[in-house]
Amino acid sequence: MPIHHQTAALLAGAALAAVTLSGPAAAADLTGIAAPVEYQSPWQIRLRGLGVLTEDEGYVDGVNGSDLSYSNTVIPELDISYYFTDNIAAELILGTTYANVNGEGSIAGLGRVGKTWLLPPTLTLQYHFTDFGKFKPYVGAGATYAIFYNQDGDAASDLDIENTFGAALQVGFDYMIDDHWGWNVDVKKIFLEPDFDVVVGGSKLSGKAKLNPWLIGTGVTYRF
Fold first, then answer.
1. Hey, which family's this protein in (predicted)?
2. Fewer CB near the terminus (10 Å): N or C of the chain?
3. How far apart are the first and last CA of the chain?
4. Taking the CB of residue 9, how many other CB atoms lie within 10 A of it?
5. What pLDDT, in 10s, does the model give residues 64-119?
């Protein structure tokens, strides 16, 4: 066979081998390129039923043996979360509740001192664990600013609980039914000890209300 025919045959064989060997890899590359990447929004909301369980401690300055207690409540709560990464998110908790303030200990005879409404917007930074499939636990920590409003005296002729900052700790989980809907359980501890002024029998008194509530909630999660 002439040399140029041998060369042509060798080149053709090499080309055929290259195509054969690269076929699966090329197909894999094309498959990888064609596979759609599903977009997941960083926004998430939850709607919970929330139990607010207070610590029931406090005192009136200068009154030995004085103590305070507060009513527990069940309220609706909305929270909005933003995911910076799959693991790190910020959550803003929105809800309002009320508390009856009662005299205890040496001032138990006063009965209900008064009533106040409370708006404590709370912001936490969370770490979400992502290695458990549909079960997605998280922990968080942050701060709250408690705003007291519509305060009315009962045994007291005047009640003024001061707005204040507090710290917050959080643990909970989402169990995702599908890519968007899930069930949430959440527990928070809020460290909240506002000062207050009160007028009883014409005398102006002050003290500290150690609310320090547990917030225990469950409800629906929706990831956009």
1. Belongs to the OmpW/AlkL family.
2. N
3. 71
4. 11
5. 999 999 999 999 999 999 999 999 999 999 999 999 999 999 999 999 999 999 99
Beta strands in the chain (DSSP E): 43-53, 57-60, 66-70, 73-83, 88-94, 97-105, 112-119, 122-128, 135-153, 158-161, 164-176, 181-191, 195-200, 203-210, 214-223
- Do 26 and 78 lie in one domain? The reply is no
Q: Are 113 and 155 in contact (CB under 8 A)?
A: yes
Report the b/e string of 145-167 with b at 16+ CB within 10 A: ebebeebebbbbeebbbeebebe
Query: Which pLDDT belongs to residue 13?
Result: 55
Residue 3, domain extent = 1-37
Helix-strand-coil percent breakdown of the chain, rounded to 5?
A: 15, 60, 25
Q: Is residue 19 located within the same domain as residue 81?
A: no
Q: Are 92 and 105 in contact (CB under 8 A)?
A: no
> What are residue 175's DSSP bridge partners?
135, 183
pLDDT digits (tens, 9 = 90+) for 187-200: 999 999 999 999 99
Residue 114 near residue 198, CB atoms below 8 Å: yes
